[in-house]
Amino acid sequence: MRNVAILGSTGSIGTQTLDIISQNSSELNVVALSAGSNIELLEKQIRQYKPSLVAVWDDKKAAELRQNISDLSGVQVVSQMEGLLAVATIADSDILVTAIVGMLGIRPTIAAIEAGKDIALANKETLVTAGHIIMPLARKNQVKILPVDSEHSAIFQSLQGEEHNEINQILLTASGGPFRGMTWDEMQNVTLEQALNHPNWSMGKKITIDSSTMVNKGLEVMEAHHLFNVNLDKITVVIHPQSILHSAVQFNDGAVIGQMGTPDMRIPISYALFYPERKPINSEYLDLFQVGQMTFEKPDLNAFKGLALAYKAMEQGGNIPTVLNAANEKAVAKFLNNEIRYVQIPEIIGECMENISYINNPNLEEILETEQLTYDYIEGRY
Ligand code: NAD
Ligand code: MG
Predict the structure, then answer these.
(1) Ligand nearest to the CA of 123
(2) I want to staple 151 with a disulfide (CB 3.0 to 4.6 A). Which of 3, 9, 104, 247 is the partner?
């Protein structure tokens, strides 16, 4: 039996993780769950999966949940960052699924690694901003970082048994999102509804917007760099609108090994939870005859300014990926709230990258300070 704790159990990755756990209930067991504010769904999950600890970010909601489950014994409800840290480090867990969104996941992920927990990592923002701290820490504590992001799972799967072989390049695929083929001028008036309408994947709102701007792909290049210790100039972004080839690795002999499948996050989630074993999944399997054809294109960096900015942030290094990530988190939240226009997302990111001071090799405190400075900069102006 593997004991699983989940940060962000009510979200897109969180609920799909619970689905995989339900499909394998004799092998996987839930010990802790956490959510931001959706206590109705969290309560259903508590009654179904019987964790001993749950965290709710909001204090008032946590108190409300305690009332609502007062008929149950043996479930502790905690809140705030203390709550996330408690879920991340709960004594009887073997693996933590980081399905929370944003930089909030950094401290719990670090705490879990220090407590010796394996990490099934969906929360890419933690690696983008603190990968240079998290990866060495994981090596030191001999814990596994198992990628859940579909592209990174594909790369990880392609690298099995290839430890001693040289990577020529990583081919990181991207669907191109709903605005593939549009120019920057044509994007000026896109609406929230259009941006939330991803052609292939059903995901949480923030990553859906990130996919449409291709900032997501920029974050994923940085995520791949940290996970696989590969230089940025060896990571090539390939637009593949069908989302069937989830990414691939070209080795030094020219051979390309990739992983294909339907666009279903339960495949990488299951692979991370059972690694190195594979388990049957109750979903539609890939039918290549139905796919018919797969196509590949170069990304348009003039239209997708967010991706171009991500390349720039990677080159600059230090705390600039954190500036990009924090500015993106804030700008996307404002766009989701109808406070700014779509094209202002990359504009705000670029402005923050120019105005927040550079710090080389930032420690955790400096990363969190950079996040706050970036938020304050945007709040003062937009
Ligand atoms: P989501 O918005 O659907 O869910 C986020 C979860 O985090 C929810 O359970 C929410 O309650 C929780 N949360 C939010 N704020 C919180 C707070 N203050 N305290 C505690 N919990 C809080 O997001 P998602 O799409 O599931 O994405 C989660 C992570 O996985 C992101 O980093 C995303 O980039 C990554 N990811 C998602 C997908 C996908 O298919 N959805 C694919 C690859 C990577
Ligand atoms: Mg991805």
Answers:
(1) 1
(2) 247
Q: What does the CA dihedral 125, 354, 181, 214 come to, rounded to 10 degrees?
A: 0
Hey, where are the domains in the chain?
A: 2-147, 153-263+284-301, 317-382
What CATH superfamily is the domain 2-147? NAD(P)-binding Rossmann-like Domain (3.40.50.720)
Count of positions (residues) in the chain: 382
Question: What is the distance between the alpha carbons of residues 346 and 198, in angstroms, rounded to a whole number?
Answer: 19
317-382 placed in CATH 1.10.1740.10: yes
pLDDT tens digits, one per residue of 229-247 = 999 999 999 999 999 999 9
Mean pLDDT over residues 165-182, rounded? 98
Pairing of β 235-239 and β 167-174: parallel
> What pTM was computed for the model?
0.97
Q: In whole angstroms, what is the distance from residue 97 CA to residue 109 CA? A: 9
Secondary structure class of 52 (helix, strand, coil): coil
In percent, the amount of the chain with pLDDT more than 70 equals 100
d(C-alpha 278, C-alpha 295), whole Å: 28
DSSP state letters, 202-252: ---HHHHHHHHHTHHHHHHHHHHHHHHT--GGGEEEEE-TT--EEEEEEET
Pocket of ligand 1 (CB under 6 A): 8-14, 34-36, 38, 57, 99-101, 104, 122-125, 149, 201, 203-207, 265
- Residues 118-135: tens digit of each pLDDT: 999 999 999 999 999 999
What does the pLDDT average to over 143-162?
98
Q: What spacing in Å lies between the alpha carbon of 22 and ligand 1's midpoint? A: 20
So what's the pLDDT on residue 171? 98
Instruction: Summarize the confidence of residues 98-113 as an average pLDDT.
Output: 97
Q: Which residues have C-beta within 8 Å of that of residue 352, sequence separation ≥ 6?
A: 323, 324, 326, 327, 374, 377, 378
- In sequence order, what are the beta bridge partners of 258? 248
Q: Which residue has the tokens 């969104």?
A: 101
- Residue corresponding to tokens 């790369």: 155
End-to-end CA distance of the chain: 50
At residue 72, what is the residue type? L
Q: Which two tokens stand for residue 80?
A: 């705030």
CA dihedral 11, 12, 16, 19 (to 10 degrees): 50
